[in-house]
Design a protein that fits this description.
Largest sheet: none
CATH topology of the largest domain: Amino acid/polyamine transporter I
Oligomer: single chain
Order of helices and strands: HHHHHHHHHHHHHHHHHHH
């Protein structure tokens, strides 16, 4: 399969980020942003509502998350630009939706930073006795300094920290396995299927964060290969960790005690490690929340950088250091904003503020992927049910399309074009969003105007300045 050139537009050369992150660093960014402190709480919350069926709840939540991750991975490998979801929305749905998405996406992660950094401060307090807010500010200052030194160093530190954290969680599982009592798993579904369904809603929170990988898409090498792999590996590794840790926790502690404990993994660890287990669990949580804090700073700074590059924020925010390739203006701005949120000292406020923003930013992902696929003429799908469903959609949408300025030839291409080949599972979401021919024509005109390429040559244009409907040759 051939892909378009993934460099940023040439006229943005002074605002171009460097591709230095490899697959390992990309996965570390995703896993670190996804696990956080949630694994130390969600295991008990799911067990309290489904008993041993919490294992099944995490699998179901993974399946739902996968349906979101597949189109997101599709978009990431097609448009590997800084800003992730913001860049996708602006490219595919236009500047107005890009404006809404950018502020919502950026704002949601700014607020979620308080949930993360103050959580780090809480674990830091448990280990050292120091107040949580100074601990949160210390983490923000450290992450800001590391990111100002360059994304290469940030990726290396992220890999080391999340590697140690995962080793600690795997150590918890390895030491606990000999103490697992299989009778603890009977009955497996004490609350029936309804309990599993409720627990699945909580378990779904365990997989939020894979989109952080795409936010750094402009700095990942071989993005057409590494971005989809990193997103899917993130989900698989998180699922594996959750299943292993949950199995051990349920096996060493009755599920009803696990569900009522304020620190379920620490309570489970004390069953086979004694009082030392609680301290080790707090240390592991300290590492995972630190990795998440760094990931949040990377995401927020790249979204702000992309918005500034598009004129939605002051140009200073889009400045890139000539040697390190760091968007230092965006990093400094977001370091300050993260510190201000941490100074509120309210985890509840941060958690409440982040929920609507993060939920709304996910609503457009399947529609955007579907639009992208309709605009690609190189795609091949299963040729039975999906093609007939597409033609049925075309009949329903025909009046709207005829009201636009598209030509008859463009109309016939819309009605008969085959969809996507670049990502195998994407046909699952192709019917999620109707795209009008006029919208496509306007999008193509915008891309042509930006790249200053005559319309007659757009079929051979490569790079992100290529019209979204242009085929790669």
């Amino acid at each position: 399969m051939e892909h378009k050139n993934t460099d940023v537009p040439s006229e943005q050369g002074s605002q171009q980020l460097h591709r230095v992150l490899k697959l390992r660093e990309a996965v570390a960014l995703g896993v670190g942003g996804t696990i956080g402190g949630g694994i130390f709480v969600l295991v008990g919350a799911a067990a309290g509502r489904a008993g041993p069926g919490a294992l099944l709840a995490f699998v179901l939540a993974f399946a739902v998350s996968l349906l979101i991750a597949l189109p997101y991975a599709e978009l990431a490998c097609r448009y590997p630009l800084a800003g992730g979801g913001y860049a996708f929305a602006r490219t595919l749905l236009g500047p107005h939706w890009g404006f809404v998405m950018g502020w919502g996406y950026w704002g949601a992660y700014i607020f979620v930073s308080g949930y993360v950094t103050l959580g780090f401060g809480g674990y830091f307090h448990a280990l050292t006795g120091l107040p949580p807010v100074p601990g949160a500010l210390a983490l923000i200052g450290l992450c800001t300094g590391i990111n100002l030194a360059g994304i290469r160093l940030s990726g290396l530190v992220q890999s080391l920290v999340i590697g140690v954290a995962m080793a600690a969680l795997l150590g918890f599982s390895a030491l606990g396995l000999p103490h697992v009592h299989m009778e603890q798993f009977t009955p497996f579904l004490p609350f029936g299927a309804g309990g599993v369904a409720v627990a699945s809603l909580l378990a779904f929170l365990a997989f939020g964060g894979f989109d952080m990988v795409a936010a750094a898409g402009e700095e990942i090498t071989s993005p057409e290969r590494n971005l989809p792999r990193a997103i899917l590996l993130t989900l698989l590794m998180v699922l594996g960790l959750y299943l292993l840790v949950t199995f051990v926790a349920l096996g060493v502690l009755p599920w009803n005690e696990l569900g009522t404990s304020p620190a379920p993994l620490a309570a489970a660890a004390t069953q086979f490690l004694g009082s030392t287990g609680r301290q080790l669990t707090a240390a592991a949580a300290l590492l995972t929340t630190a990795a998440t804090g760094n990931a949040v700073l990377v995401v927020t700074s790249r979204v702000a950088f992309a918005m500034a590059r598009d004129g939605l924020l002051p140009g200073l925010v889009a400045r890139v250091h000539s040697k390190t390739g760091t968007p230092w203006g965006a990093v400094l701005l977001n370091g300050i904003l993260l510190a201000l949120v941490a100074l509120t000292g309210s985890v509840a406020l941060a958690a409440a503020a982040r929920s609507p923003g993060r939920a709304s930013t996910r609503l457009w992902r399947m529609p955007a992927a579907a639009r992208d696929q309709w605009m690609d003429r190189s795609v091949r799908w299963p040729r039975v049910a999906l093609r007939w469903a597409a033609r049925l959609w075309s009949c329903v949408h025909l009046p709207q399309a005829m009201a636009t300025r598209s030509t008859g030839r463009e109309m016939s291409q819309i009605l008969t074009r085959p969809p996507l080949r670049s990502f195998k599972a994407s046909p699952l979401v192709i019917l999620a969003f109707p795209v009008s021919c006029g919208d496509e024509a306007r999008a193509r005109d915008e891309w042509v105007a930006r790249s200053r390429v005559p319309p007659s040559t757009t079929a051979h244009t490569t790079g992100p300045d290529s019209p979204p409907g242009a085929a790669s040759h």
